[in-house]
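Review box. Two proteins, two foldings.
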Amino acid sequence: MNQVYHIHDQCCRHASNTLEDVVRLALKEGYQALFFTEHIPLDGNKYMLRPTRAEIQTLRDRIDQMNQKYANRLKIHFGYEAEYSKWNKTYFDQFARNSPGDYFIFGNHYFGDLWKPNPRLVMEKTCTKSDLDEYYDNTVLAMKSDLFSFYAHPDIWLQSYRKWDDDAKWLTQQIITLSIKYQVPLGFNANGIHQIRNDFNYPSRLFWHEVAQSNAQVIIEADAHDIATLKREWLAKARTLAITYGLAKNLIDKVDIKYFR
């Protein structure tokens, strides 16, 4: 693995990584390309911690400086991990056209309108069948938009739903079908393996065994909020787990990034 996907910086307010930390490790580990995907700013949102547009611009400027400094050794790409929903679709469409980032990955973290008080976090609140329906609707919109290069932690909802019933199996199959139809790879989350306690923590064995029965493409994504997750040994651990789940034929090493410009 010479390129690493899904990396965060301290500006997201829940990561310990700095760009400089990541670059030092990348040079040590011999990576050729890094794909930062910072959480998208949500202008005017009072209810969740996100970087500001000014912080995003500063991060982009620092990345450009690093690319100049290490031009012969490392390429750093910059985009966003973004939600997408029927309530907020226009915001994300416009942000893609008017921001210093170059691409999106789909990271669906919340239920409901992101600008309403106390939006519900997918992975921490008890979700219902109607929540799964909303999650599916948002996924359909995101895949149809053709904005997203891959689908981060597509099984994150199981951590809250905590049942492997017909509805969970239905949503899993729909996500797989949409991934194949719109050629959006699914992200097998290396950060998640820090916290696997049961079949509902992501990456979920239940979900990925279903993916293994399909020809959906799967990419190992770091989702790095700390340096440990970026080390080759940790990403190799995630890859080994994916193979244990039956995904050897699904795994790809490189994503075709859908750049905005």
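Next protein.
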Amino acid sequence: MDSAFIIEKSIFIVVIFAFTMIMAMYSTWAERKVAAYLQDRVGPNRAGWGGLLQPLADGMKLFAKEEFEPNTPNKFLFFVGPAIAMSTALMTSAVIPWGDRLELFGRTVVLQATDIDVSLLYIFGVVSVGVYGIMIGGWASNNKYSLISAIRAGSQMVSYEIAMGLSIIALLMMTGSLSLKEISIQQAGMDWNVFYQPVGFLIFLICAFAEANRTPFDLAECESELIGGYHTEYSSMKMGFYLFAEYANMFISSTILAVLYFGGYNYPGMSWALENWGVNIANVIGILVLFIKICGFIFFFMWIRWTIPRFRYDQLMHLGWKVLIPLSIINIIITGICILAFN
């Protein structure tokens, strides 16, 4: 392994992490703009043109706020909680194929930090660790509301991870691969998996809302019952990390949805563009196409938040265990029958 390859991959990882953080940061601005549009308001419009500097102002405000620490015997874990939540939110971007490749300075740059054969297992493993960030933060806060919120979040995320995993099994039966790169390649043109797995896509989408603690599944942050939820006792940038991790998870969830079910960076006519316009132009268009798909899902996340009211906790558990899990198993059985019948 030459040093140029290591430098290339290091630069790419830094760029992807920075891009993920910028997307998460400006998702807060987009959320307020979408909410304002749906509620016939103006939204942020003071800091910069159209309020584009509002995320920077919010970040500076969080940095400048007083660091408040509750009287807890678990000060170390109190700091570790938001760090785990933030780290796991960023780590999942390492295996996502952001495009095919680019020819730069005589080298072929693959637009993926690492292409491992078990990319999906890696994502599920990292996402499952994210539960600990919330659980540890809520428990170490020495606050009963935070503890109840952490228990809610943990049970919610564990419950919906089962249905999410089962929905992916039907997709794996079709694709025969756990590699996100291979799954993207198989969806060249408009041969998207959503046309073959509409039920699996719907289940995965609902579970993504629950995994990201987004409305209508934000029971862990139910203000009327639990004040601020698991981050009630947090202030300054530690609270900012929790809020930032939520938007980073929303961005990564949107990316995974686009890659698994909507072709990722593939678009109609990509093979023609490769032949006539060259590798760089065709693949830059592919990156933009993936970005458009991601923005579409992010808008959908925000649209749902300001449209549908919050579920009750028993309704949340009922949907996960008694509806989505049986539906996922039925989808697996039907997929197996169809593969045997048509092959």
